[in-house]
Design goal:
This protein is an alpha/beta fold. Helix content is 42%, strand content 16%. The protein has 13 helices and eleven strands. Helix 2 links the parallel strand 2 and strand 3. It is globular. About 13% of the residues have low confidence.
């Protein structure tokens, strides 16, 4: 008997050089998802960012609505919606509408937000973002199941709130929580019985944390009377595929210029708040596919055969 099918997808931030036409860059992202659909990919997860100009998509919901009309089978997820940036009722309502428009092809990925410069522009304290994510998730989950919710926090209030349409997907749109090395994402996913998006699964720290984070997710789910399944667990990692590793290295050698262009275009204190793209920052550390501090590969240059081998290694790690 055949075993469980391995699913394939892409996590599309996306990343674009600042000297590139943004209109054409967005169109290329749309065309990429169309091609993925034709090739039989299962999923595409679309990011949300609002500053720095490198990751251009501000509304994954708008992007998903567009590509849903141009694709047939591929599932489309927010990768991820930054919960502190949205009133939870409004976000749940938009996702529920997409659930109907796409006939169940939409997925909701959630996280606290990754760019401090995004939070700065909205006056959000970075240290509070994870708590805000948890508070929002506590009400979004029942809302998307069609339940009525009353809740009050220091940044939103709901009074007998309920979505005006019952969900197309039953019992709910699929929801997944972003997780890296820290167990906070795994804890949130387990508390609600949700899926897990392990971002950075191919980095040394991320790979080593896979088993412990999934164990935390399972234990938390059990403590809260929830059940989770490994089929809800996605592993995310960057890889550059070329005919041979030498060609891959030559192609990737052009990428440092795009990182170097990023910081000078950012503005004011918002730019200072986000130091990831300064020379010596984490984006600069990994720009050649290898962490200059540890020597470990983060985004490997691989031939197709080597990429398949790596995928099986990740598949075994999550089995």
């Amino acid at each position: 008997m055949a075993g469980q099918k391995m699913r394939f997808g892409a996590f599309i931030a996306p990343f674009h050089p600042l000297n590139e036409n943004p209109t054409l860059a967005l169109e290329r992202d749309i065309e990429l998802v169309q091609l993925m659909d034709k090739l039989g990919y299962d999923e595409a997860w679309i990011g949300e960012h609002h500053s720095a100009g490198y990751e251009l998509i501000a509304s994954p919901e708008l992007f998903i609505a567009t590509v849903a009309e141009r694709t047939r089978n591929i599932k489309l997820g927010t990768g991820v919606s930054s919960l502190p940036y949205h009133h939870p009722l409004m976000l749940a309502d938009r996702i529920n509408q997409l659930d109907h428009i796409t006939r169940g092809r939409v997925m909701l990925g959630v996280g606290p937000g990754s760019l401090p410069s995004d939070a700065f522009m909205m006056g959000i304290t970075v240290a509070k973002q994870r708590d805000m994510m948890d508070e929002a998730l506590d009400v979004i989950v029942p809302l998307l199941r069609g339940e009525k919710v009353t809740a009050k926090t220091d940044w939103f209030e709901l009074k007998d709130a309920q979505l005006q349409m019952t969900p197309w997907s039953r019992p709910s749109v699929e929801i997944a929580v972003a997780s890296q090395v820290s167990p906070t994402g795994a804890t949130a996913a387990g508390r609600h019985g949700l899926g897990l998006l392990s971002i950075g699964a191919t980095s040394a720290g991320g790979f080593n944390a896979l088993s412990s984070n999934w164990a935390i997710c399972e234990d938390t789910a059990k403590d809260n009377g929830k059940t989770i399944d490994r089929s809800q667990w996605r592993l995310v990692g960057p890889v550059h595929i070329a005919e041979d590793t030498g060609k891959g290295a030559r192609e990737r050698a052009l990428r440092p210029r795009t990182v170097a262009l990023l910081f000078p275009r950012s503005r004011g204190a918002a730019a200072r708040a986000d130091r990831r793209f300064r020379p010596g920052g984490c984006a600069d550390r990994f720009r050649h596919g290898r962490d200059r501090h540890t020597g470990r590969r983060h985004c490997a240059d691989r031939t197709p055969a080597a990429a398949v081998g790596r995928l099986w290694l990740l598949h075994a790690a999550r089995a």
